[in-house]
Amino acid sequence: MRRYGFTLIELLVVIAIIAILAAILFPVFSQAREKARQSQCTSNSRNISMATQQYAQDYDERFPFWRTPCWVGGPANMYAPPVPIAQDAYVRNRQVWKCPSTGRDWSWPLACAGDDPVANRNRGWWSCGGAYGLHSAVRRTDWIIFTSYGYNEFVQNDSDSYGRIPRLRNPAEFVIWGDSECAFFTPWGMGNNWGVTTQGHVVRLAWPEYWSDNFATYTDANAGRHLKGSLLAFADGHSKWYTWQQIRMARYGGPLRFMRCDEEPCSPSDWR
Question: In the list 84, 108, 239, 271, which could disulfide-bond 45, CB 3.0-4.6 Å?
Answer without folding.
Answer: 239
